[in-house]
Design a protein that fits this description.
CATH class of the domain at 399-555: Mainly Alpha
Family: Belongs to the class-I aminoacyl-tRNA synthetase family.
Shape: globular
Radius of gyration: 28 Å
CATH superfamily of the domain at 399-555: Isoleucyl-tRNA Synthetase, Domain 1
Mean pLDDT: 93
Subunit structure: Monomer.
Strand order of the largest sheet: 5-4-9-10
Largest sheet: 4 strands, parallel
Oligomer: single chain
Helix content: 40-55%
Number of strands: 14
Number of helices: 21
Strand content: 5-15%
EC number: 6.1.1.19
Enzyme class: ligase
CATH architecture of the domain at 399-555: Orthogonal Bundle
Distance between the termini: 35 Å
Bound molecules: arginine
Domain Arginyl tRNA synthetase N-terminal: 5-84
Low-confidence stretches: 374-379
Length: 563
């Protein structure tokens, strides 16, 4: 039951069409302090239309409201405070959660519509950056939130696996590289060759011509060039997959830029047909004055294609393959202008799904105040950051719960979960600095805190043993439990809102709120007391455990039963 809708109806019955139902619904506030009720209506917003003092309006309306289904309705100053019927509501919420289990909060707003999500998308032969990490975990969580809202996401890793840099890499490898080194440590060595290329080509500009030739060969399908490119790609992917495995993220497709190498003509043809391509200093551009944007460069003067040329092909492919309900690109804020241009070009082309294109930007991330760069000459790989977090988690568990049987596994879930949560609890567009130790604390606004709260709920249930919760009376009127019950009730709305805003942080913040409310209940009420209320209290604990676990799941964070 939507209690906001119930209160809206009560108010509408007392009003004389001064406000629409949507108006009332929107005006309802959730007071911070429970002594002001569960929902409050600001009567002063009616002062102008009703030509009366706010407190008089409040009193008049209260006298007309049917208060039978509430614990209390009171006029307080310029507000009307609604106190919901605790027993009734707790019974309803807990019953719903226990019946639906992990499906609690599921809706069908998406009607099964396809949603390609362009996410992670690191560049071959380069280390996966913290930016790519953010794209990976944000994209993964958005995909889960979309499923919860009835959509069908397609997670696509749009690898940066094409471009002139591969000509350079081939030249560098042939001159200075060797097979064993690449196999042993692909990313670090490939980067080393690439860096050397750029040191050498200052004095030997002929290297650039060689590189151009090799990229041309690659584009033409030359056997050796293709073999080397494929090999660099495979080795890089192996390194990336190690990280994806640790994060527990999978993809549906890996259609990188190379995949579109032979699919670019169609887009160029449409641009030509529609008369959108214009020559500018030998190059081909699309003017975007109408959008207040600079022209988009589509083809270089030598006919070479660019990042955007491949993105146009990608958009056409996704349009035809998926008939998308939404088109999402989870890519850092630094590409915001670029995506504005891309969207404008696609709109001009008349591509159906251009209107549903959403660039989902996010801010920068640093670790312990530093950009992820070099540590004693070596590139710090994300992999190492994850390992550090797991190591720290292990230490924590070692002191807190030394007898835990599956310590290694739990340390992984807690360490990795701390990193994912530490990212996702922030609004996407914020810049964040990561202090590993802080994110790994079992108290405060952290993943481990939410995980710990879930494990606490599970441990209470375990201690209680086999008790039939379905038969239990679930109308709980304990004041100390009220915040928890109200928070459980909010979950379905939070799921919708997080989806509409493409904002995993709403789920993360929600999970913190539920964990806090539950811990307060735990601190103030004796849950495992031996009285007739035991089963009803345990049913609430079970509901909390289910919703905490599902919230973490929506973020891509595991919820161990013990830690
Ligand atoms: N590989 C690019 C980078 O690392 C990100 C690709 C984003 N996706 C896209 N369709 N342009 O900057």
């Amino acid at each position: 039951m939507d209690y906001k809708a119930q209160v809206t109806n009560s108010l509408l019955e007392a009003l004389n069409d001064e406000l629409t139902s949507a108006d009332v619904y929107q005006k309802l506030e959730t007071p911070k302090d429970l002594s002001m009720g569960d929902l409050a209506f600001p009567a002063f917003t009616l002062a102008k239309v009703m030509h009366k003092a706010p407190n008089m309006i409040a009193e008049e309306l209260v006298s007309k409201i049917n208060t039978a289904s509430y614990e209390k309705v009171e006029a307080k100053g310029a507000y009307i405070n609604f106190f919901l019927d605790k027993g009734h509501m707790s019974n309803e919420v807990i019953t719903n959660v226990l019946e639906e289990g992990a499906a609690y909060g599921q809706n069908d707003l998406g009607k099964g519509g396809n949603v390609p999500i362009d996410m992670s998308s690191p560049n071959i032969a380069k280390p996966i950056s913290m930016g790519h990490l953010r794209s990976t975990v944000i994209g993964n969580s958005i995909a889960k939130i979309l499923v919860k809202n009835g959509y069908h996401p397609i997670k696509d890793n749009h690898l940066g696996d094409w471009g002139t840099q591969f000509g350079k890499l081939i030249v560098a490898y042939k001159k200075w590289g060797n097979e064993d080194d690449v196999k042993a440590d692909p990313i670090n060595n490939l980067v080393k060759y690439y860096v050397k290329f750029h040191q050498e080509d200052k004095e030997h500009p002929e290297l650039d011509d060689e590189a151009r030739e090799w990229f041309k060969k690659l584009e033409d399908g030359d056997e050796e060039a293709t073999f080397l490119w494929q090999w660099f790609r495979d080795e890089s992917l192996k390194a990336f997959n190690k990280i994806y495995d640790k994060l527990g993220v999978t993809f549906d497709t890996y259609n990188g830029e190379a995949f579109y190498n032979d699919k670019m003509q169609a887009g160029i043809d449409i641009l030509k047909e529609k008369g959108l391509l214009e020559e500018s200093q030998g190059a081909q551009v699309v003017k975007l004055d109408k959008y207040d944007l600079n022209p988009a460069l589509i083809l270089k003067s030598d006919g070479a294609t660019l990042y955007i040329t491949r993105d146009i092909a990608t958009a056409i492919y996704r349009d035809q393959t998926y008939k998308p309900a939404l088109n999402l690109y989870v890519v850092g804020s630094e590409q915001t202008y670029y995506f504005q241009q891309l969207k404008a070009v696609l709109l001009e082309m008349g591509l159906k799904s251009a209107e549903n294109l959403h660039h989902i930007p996010f801010g920068l991330i640093t670790v312990n105040g530093k950009k992820l760069s070099t540590r004693s000459g070596r590139i710090i790989l994300l992999d190492e950051v994850l390992d550090d977090a797991i190591e720290l988690a292990k230490k924590q568990i070692e002191t807190k719960n030394p007898d835990l049987p599956n310590k290694e596994e739990v340390a992984k879930e807690v360490g990795v979960g701390a990193i994912i949560f530490g990212d996702l609890k922030n609004e996407r567009t914020n810049n964040i600095d990561f202090v590993l130790e802080d994110q790994l604390r079992f108290e405060g606004e952290t993943g481990p805190y939410v995980q710990y709260s879930h494990a606490r709920a599970e441990s209470i249930l375990k201690k209680a043993g086999n008790i039939d919760l379905h038969a239990a009376d679930k109308s709980i009127t304990d004041e100390n439990a009220w915040d928890t019950i109200r928070t459980l009730q909010d979950f379905p709305e939070v799921v919708k809102s997080a989806c509409a805003d493409f904002e995993p942080s709403e789920i993360a913040k929600y999970s913190l709120r539920l964990a806090k409310a539950f811990n307060k209940y735990y601190a103030h009420s004796t849950i495992l007391g031996d009285d007739e209320g035991l089963a009803s209290r345990l049913s609430l604990v079970k509901a909390v455990s289910i919703v905490l676990k599902e919230s973490l799941n929506l973020l891509g964070v595991k919820a161990p039963d013990e830690m």
